[in-house]
Design brief:
By secondary structure, the protein is mainly β. It has three domains: about 180 residues, Immunoglobulin-like, CATH 2.60.40; about 120 residues, Immunoglobulin-like (Sandwich); about 60 residues, no CATH class. It has one helix and 26 strands. The protein starts with a strand and ends in a 19-residue tail after the last helix.
């Protein structure tokens, strides 16, 4: 009976790394309208089946090769078909490891050759079409062959099983196993902040600080994966109103990057300066036999105190207005007094000035 996929329940990819590969689950509806769920997983294995490892990890010399296995298990109560293939590793915007579908792998994924187990079909593009009955599993042998001219360092890859709805429709609902592949040789461990942009957002409350929004890219300019602890520090002249922001990137792959956004409360002291610092650290069970090179980039922000200037203008204007109003009121009162005295025929008394001279009568 054909299964029509209705909605993806799990995330598009859940690959091993920091987390054990978890089963993928996709809601489905059969031809007769009954609901079902297709659940499957891909696990590191030996020829006898899953062996409890979280991922496949190898350190290999250029030109070397090694044989490994992964087991694809269909936990559903009905048959399902999967595309099994290898690909280059990357990180999603959320920092999760992924093997994007489509396109030929160019790095570590291209070094992996899958051998079809019994019942699987080898496709022309190197992928396997694997149909499993409900509750069945199949162990897929794979060979990792490192090119003789491979560069030292990490070459992340993964093997995934993508659920196929039917012969024509394929959904990018995938789970898989991550491969940590490192080629021997001298490695470099370095992170660099780049493409720093800032935006000043004043607070319209003149008695509250504004916000500086900082966005930058952390690039892995080395050849091993690294975690990162980026920090942004800002302050006005002479260190006035110092503020800082820290973040954590669990990993940045070689040649790849991650975006960091920070928001710092800063008082409007016209010109704010500081820097973005990125300090690398070793991820998980990795061993990095190289000096860890941190990176730094300057930050400058013009934090003009517009609300405070507006308040100052209002205060000065109010003082000038009050003084003008008082002088005008005093002149009006004096004019009325003079009119009343003139009507009564009383001469206005001369006013003695500060110099001792008398002012003439009106």
């Amino acid at each position: 009976m054909r299964i029509l996929l209705r909605s993806v329940v799990a995330a598009a990819v859940a690959l091993g790394g920091f987390l054990v590969a978890v089963p993928g689950a996709v809601g489905a509806t059969t031809d007769d309208g009954s609901a079902t769920t297709v659940t499957w997983t891909v696990q590191p294995a030996t020829a006898d089946g899953p062996d409890g490892r979280i991922s496949l990890r190898h350190v290999l010399d250029p030109g070397a090769s090694v044989t490994e296995h992964v087991t694809v298990t269909n936990f559903s109560d009905r048959a399902a078909t999967f595309l099994v293939y290898a690909g280059d590793g990357t990180l999603s915007d959320s920092g999760d490891f992924d093997v994007p579908p489509g396109g030929a792998p160019q790095d570590g994924g291209a070094w992996i050759a899958l051998s079809p187990p019994e019942g699987a079909e080898a496709l022309d593009d190197g992928r396997l079409s694997l149909t499993l009955a409900g509750g069945a599993a199949a162990t897929v042998p794979l060979t990792i062959t490192v090119p003789a001219d491979a560069t030292p360092g990490d070459h992340p890859a993964g093997v995934v099983a993508e659920l196929v709805a039917d012969d024509a429709v394929r959904l990018a609902a995938r789970v898989g196993t991550r491969l940590h592949l490192r080629v021997t040789g001298d490695v470099e461990a370095a992170l660099t902040p780049d493409d720093v942009t800032t935006r000043w957002e004043p607070s319209w409350n003149p008695f509250a600080p504004g916000t500086v929004h900082v966005r930058y890219v952390v690039r892995n300019t080395g050849d091993v994966r690294l975690g990162a602890r980026p920090a942004t520090t800002l302050a006005g002249p002479a260190g006035i109103g110092a503020a800082s922001h820290t973040a954590e990137l669990r990993e940045v792959l070689p040649g790849q990057s991650a975006v960091v956004e920070a928001s710092l409360p800063v008082w409007p002291v016209v010109r704010v300066t500081g820097h973005v610092d990125v300090r690398p650290w070793v991820v998980g069970e990795d061993v990095v036999d190289a000096a860890m090179r941190a990176g730094s980039a300057p930050v400058t922000v013009w934090a003009v105190p517009w609300p405070q200037l507006a308040l100052l203008v209002l205060v000065v204007g109010a003082v000038v207005l009050v003084r003008w109003w008082r002088r005008r009121s005093a002149r009006q009162v004096q004019a009325r007094v003079d009119e009343a005295l003139a009507a009564a025929g009383v001469a206005r008394e001369p006013v003695t000035s500060t110099t001792g001279a008398q002012s003439p009568p009106p």
